Amino acid sequence: MKRHALAAWLLLLPLTTMAQDAPTWFRPDGGWILVGVLAVGALVAAGILQGRAGRAIETRPIAGLVAAEDAIGRAVEMGRPVVFVTGTQSITKPGTVAGLSVLRLVAEKCAETGARLIVPCIDTIVTRIAIETVEEAYRQAGRHDQFVPDDVFFVSNRQLAYTAAVNGVIEREHPATVFLQGEFSAESLIFGETGSRAGAMMIAGTDKETQLPFFVTTCDHTLIGEELYGAGAAISEDAQLLGSLRGVDLGRVAVLALVAVGIVLELARVEWLRTVLGG
User: Fold this and answer.
1) Domain extents for the chain?
2) Surface-to-core class of residue 272, CB atoms within 10 Å of its CB (0-12 exposed, 13-18 middle, 19+ buried)
3) What pLDDT was estimated at residue 263?
4) Does CATH place domain 63-236 in 3.30.420?
5) For the CA atoms of 120, 113, 236, 137, what is the dihedral angle to 10 degrees?
6) N or C, fewer C-beta in 10 Å, the chain?
């Protein structure tokens, strides 16, 4: 009998161990985190619904976008081209998508003024989208005959090879303006230094906080962090993008308000909030 009991225990031991080691789907002490996520999600959903309903959603002016028109006009006056770099990442990155939205604005301004636009790309899909974006801008401006397909081209999907090629374009073409919009890595400082040495006006934008110091140091204007996404939403004028942007901003305001209330209550030594939150 003891042998049978021992054998049964040995058979059930792996199942017991698996039950103990199995990950849990929910943390009992994370209820307030869930409430916060649901609240922010509700604000984003409400913003999207407002945008779909046709309610006007205003965005604050971004200095880099305001300066874009003057920068392109500068290129026309100097008779030199505009170079637009869409970042060094693939189309799967949100920064790349936002950078392509900025390309749409730049392409429209270049088509209207007759400035030459050069767009070297690191990804084949990005290249195809960039070609269609620039071509559509020239078509809408009624200057499709001035669109040069060879000015929007794929370079290489290798980081260093792409960096060297873009630097070569800047050195040879001596552009009046260089736009750096998207996700960048270690090559950001190289691009900034090369453009500054060529005498170009530099307008950068990235969501990589590790690269922002290099852009701020070497460029004339910089879209900092989520300003790049805000620029993409403002340019596209997409109701859903603007609505989601509004919802996220309201969520930030709510979080900051709760933090301020918590600090005041803590300084006043009010213990009920800590009790409610399980602290």
Assistant:
1) 63-236, 238-279
2) exposed
3) 82
4) no
5) -70
6) N
